[in-house]
Structure formats: structure tokens, C-alpha cells
Amino acid sequence: MTKEAFPRHESGLVDFDCYLPYLPDHPDKAPIYVIPSPDSPIVHQHVYFQWNGYRSPGNHEEGIKNPLSKFRSFSYNQILMRRVEEKRAHQDFEDHVGPPPETTVEKSLMDFRHLDFLAAASIGLEMALHPERRHQYFPHVGSPIVSKTVSRLDIADFFDTQREILIDAVGFPEISPQRVITSALKRLSIYFGDARIAKEVDERLANDSQYYPLRMRHKSHFYDISNYMLKKEFEIEMLPDMELGVETTAA
Q1: pLDDT (0 to 100) of residue 64
Q2: Is the dihedral of CA 100, 87, 27, 24 positive or negative?
Q3: Is residue 57 pLDDT above 70, yes or no?
Q4: pLDDT 10s digits, 144-190
Q5: Which residues on neighbouring strands pair with residue 44, listed in sequence order?
Q6: In the prediction, which pLDDT does 149 show?
Q7: Same-domain pairing of 66 and 159
Q8: Both 121 and 38 in a single domain?
Q9: Is residue 56 domain-resident?
Q10: Which one, of 150, 170, 44, 168, lies nearest residue 107 by Cα?
């Protein structure tokens, strides 16, 4: 039996709509974050699923040093689906998914970076306003360095401003389809309980109700980015816990 080619947008990106027949559940029923397990009934399907096609010519590095590898591995290019449906999709579609053009990869990574930083701004704002929650989310993360000059309210204001800037940025993506952006925002709004992002999602879904159950990274990933943002803006290492009386040791 001849297998189908994955449909593409003009940009060369795979059209995620091709997975809709393999997603019988409402996207809200899919877990936000899953740990890969051979026994799990839910898997995160890499839309661009072959490692060998995502190594730059002559470059065997992975991750941040290889844009193709990074593009393939981003959670916004992964769909959560039933294991049995993933197997059915592999039976129906081609065995190799070639990468999109280099310029498309570069623009996609910029869109994904905006989404990651938006999520980081959301959790950074929450940690600034509710520092006690850090111990609930990240019980194994050490105590932060305390800022002597920057208050939690200053930090909250910074992240609130960044959140608005980034919401505007993802509203006009470099190249990612709007449904992918909406899907990421929907998942992030649920993950972080962020009412501001949820408001943006509601407005988007009023125009197009379709979205995909994208996989999200662990919250610690976005927490690390929020601390990078803090260091860059205020030259402090981590979110302050001044009101909690936490020891001022580095994580």
C-alpha cells in the first residue's frame, strides 16, 4: 500500500490538520505534560520524527548548536495522542518527514522562542506575586539569591510588561500557522492558570475553534528562562523570596 505524504503549508511546515483524524479525544482531555514511558497509553508524537534528517550537514551536534535538531525537538512540534492512533498514523503516512527550508526553520525557532518567553513571563509573574508556590512547583530547587535592591513588585511589573509584549509578538508570528500558536497558548493558559493568556485564547477560538493537544515542557524549563530574563534585566540570579525568610544561598 502506498503511504500518503504529509501535507505541507507553503512555508514547508507540516500541516498539523493531517493528525486530526487520529485525535478522537477533545484536546482538553490530553495531559499537558507527560514523561515518556513504553507503557504509557499516551505518547508525544514528533511531527518531524526522524533524527537522521535533522542533523545539519557535517554537524553531528544536537540541541542548541544545531537549529534542525532544536526545531525537531521543540515541544510545539509534538502532539500528544493515543499510542494506538500514533501507530495508525505511521501506517498511513510516509516513513520520512524531511525538514522545511532553512529560512522556515529559523523563523519557526523565533516563534517558539516567543512562546517559551511568554510562558516564562507567566510563571515569573506568579512566582514574584506568590513566592511560596516555588516550593510547591520545584521542591528540589535550591533557595534563590535574594535581591537587595529589586522588590518583588518591581519584578512582577517587569514580567507583566513582558507578558503583554510577547502576547503581541505571538499575535503576528514569523511563520508558524495561527492554529499552532493558538494551540500553544491554549495549553500554556491551562498549564499556568494564566487568565490573561486565557483571554487571548478565547478571542482566537471565537474565530477558529480548532486547536491541537501540543506537548508542554516541564514548568522548571520555563522557570529557568524566567530567571535568565531576570538576570538580563536586573542582574540578579533568581526570583527573590525575601518575605519567606529563605536562606540566601544559590540554587
Answers
A1: 53
A2: positive
A3: no
A4: 544 557 888 899 999 999 999 999 999 999 999 999 999 999 999 99
A5: 80
A6: 74
A7: no
A8: no
A9: yes
A10: 170
Domain boundary among 100, 124, 139: 100
Please state the φ and ψ torsions of residue 234, each to the nearest 5 degrees: -115, -5
Q: Virtual CA dihedral for 224, 229, 232, 237, nearest 10 degrees?
A: -40
Question: Would residue 141 count as lying in a domain?
Answer: yes
Query: Does residue 43 sit in the same domain as residue 162?
Result: no
Q: Identify the weakest region by mean pLDDT among 11-15, 43-47, 54-58, 235-239.
A: 54-58
CB 241 within 8 A of CB 146: yes
Q: pLDDT of 103-114, one tens digit each?
A: 999 999 999 999
Q: How many CB atoms lie within 10 A of CB 230?
A: 25
pLDDT given at position 239? 53
Could you tell me if residue 249 is inside a domain? Answer: no
Q: Specify the amino acid at residue 88.
A: R
95 and 108 both lie in a single domain: no
| Alpha carbon of residue 136 to chain centroid | 21
Domain encompassing residue 183: 104-244
- The span from the CA of 69 to the CA of 53, in Å, is 9
Query: Taking a C-beta distance cutoff of 8 angstroms, is the pair 244, 132 a contact?
Result: yes
Strand, helix or coil at 90? helix
Task: Evaluate whether residue 4 is within a structural domain.
Answer: no
For the chain, what is the domain count?
A: 2
Same domain, 55 and 128: no
